[in-house]
């Protein structure tokens, strides 16, 4: 650092000290480009931008939690592909009127998550603008042997399962959750997933996306959907816990399409502590998406979060 360093340079220099690390970056932050080590000849990549007032409320959750979430949501997407996190890059757009400590507190949240997941930063960019705080992270991962799991491998007759209970994430789980990286790799090692995705916008919105990519329909058994206790807490809108499990979103559990499980696979999953709650099955595409209650199947309506529809 020389006398000609600007305030921004000093800020970024401090961030680099806290966010750079790990063996996967051959060239780390501070240059025009970073270089990621990728012996396998393929790198998995995913990106997500989080905006204050949309994906978090900065005034309520604070910068550390917002920054943690910006990395965790990307790790969740890597998990959906059964990829192993290798590193990330981040762009931060600070509001013109941001308090002096905002950037350092964002870096603190990112650094905590980077350490927890041994997934370090290889570069980034900082800007200022008139809008709300925006955090855009791009993460990189190592594909599992044989290639990643996508959304397109489900076939009629497959079972649909989720890795944990759904609904009520706004009580706190939407900010602080465990991306199912380990679970995905266990599932992949046991050759379970035909198709997989992480549940970010709600089962009723995300399931159709997987079905579309796979060219299948779905029949979900309402009674089989695991409902998180938080889905029953303070529901001022009068929606039932089941509706909240289907629609709330930001559960960040995995939705997995797979063949009916053999006993040996069930035993292996239990030994690894990986839960799979079977919620229904993939059907022929002409059957569409249905939700069955007491033997009566109704159309499954997507009421999850859609950024381009609102609410
Ligand atoms: Mg996703």
Number of helices: 7
Question: What fraction of the residues are assigned to beta strands by DSSP?
Answer: 25-35%
Helix/sheet category? alpha+beta
How many whole angstroms does the radius of gyration measure? Answer: 21 Å
- The low-confidence parts are none
> What's the count of strands?
13
Helix content: 25-40%
Q: What kind of sheet is the major sheet?
A: 7 strands, mixed
Task: Please give a quick description of this structure.
The protein is α+β, with helices and mostly antiparallel strands and 311 residues long. The chain has helices spanning 7-19, 58-80, 102-117, 181-189, 203-214, 241-247, 263-271; strands at residues 25-27, 35-36, 44-51, 84-95, 120-129, 134-142, 159-162, 193-198, 217-221, 254-258, 277-283, 289-293, 296-299. The mean pLDDT is 94.
Task: Give an account of the 3D structure.
This protein has 311 residues and is α+β, with helices and mostly antiparallel strands. 29% of the residues lie in helices and 26% in strands. A 7-stranded mixed β-sheet has the order 8-10-7-11-9-12-13, with helices on both faces. Strands 3-6-4-5 form a 4-stranded mixed β-sheet, covered by helices on one side. It starts with 6 loop residues before the first helix and ends in a 12-residue tail after the last strand. The model has no long low-confidence stretch (mean pLDDT 94). Magnesium ion is lined by residues 77, 80, 197-198, 200.
């Amino acid at each position: 650092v020389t006398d000609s360093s600007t305030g921004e340079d000093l800020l970024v220099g401090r961030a680099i000290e806290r966010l750079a690390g790990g063996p996967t970056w051959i060239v780390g932050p501070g240059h025009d480009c970073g270089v990621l080590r990728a012996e396998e000849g393929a790198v998995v990549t995913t990106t997500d931008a989080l905006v204050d007032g949309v994906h978090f409320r900065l005034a309520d959750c604070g910068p550390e939690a917002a920054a943690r979430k910006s990395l965790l949501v990307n790790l969740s997407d890597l998990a959906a592909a059964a990829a192993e996190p290798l590193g990330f890059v981040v762009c931060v757009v600070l509001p013109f009127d941001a308090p002096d400590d905002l950037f350092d507190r964002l870096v603190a949240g990112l650094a905590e998550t980077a350490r927890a997941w041994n997934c370090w930063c290889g570069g980034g960019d900082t800007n200022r603008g008139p809008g709300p705080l925006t955090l855009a992270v791009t993460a990189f991962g190592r594909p599992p042997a044989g290639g990643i799991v996508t959304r397109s491998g489900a076939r009629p007759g497959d079972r649909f399962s989720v890795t944990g209970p759904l609904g009520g994430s706004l009580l706190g789980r939407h900010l602080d959750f465990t991306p199912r990286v380990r679970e995905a790799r266990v599932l992949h090692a046991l050759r379970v997933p035909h198709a997989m995705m992480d549940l970010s916008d709600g089962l009723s919105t995300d399931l159709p996306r997987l079905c579309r990519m796979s060219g299948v329909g779905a029949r979900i058994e309402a009674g089989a959907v695991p409902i998180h206790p938080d889905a029953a807490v303070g529901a001022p809108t009068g929606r039932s816990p089941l509706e909240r499990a289907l629609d709330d979103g930001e559960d960040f559990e995995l939705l997995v399409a797979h063949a009916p499980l053999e006993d040996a696979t069930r035993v292996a999953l239990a030994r690894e502590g990986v839960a799979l709650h079977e919620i229904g099955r993939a059907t022929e595409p002409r059957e569409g998406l249905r939700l069955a209650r007491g033997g009566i199947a109704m159309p499954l309506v997507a009421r999850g979060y859609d950024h381009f529809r609102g609410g």
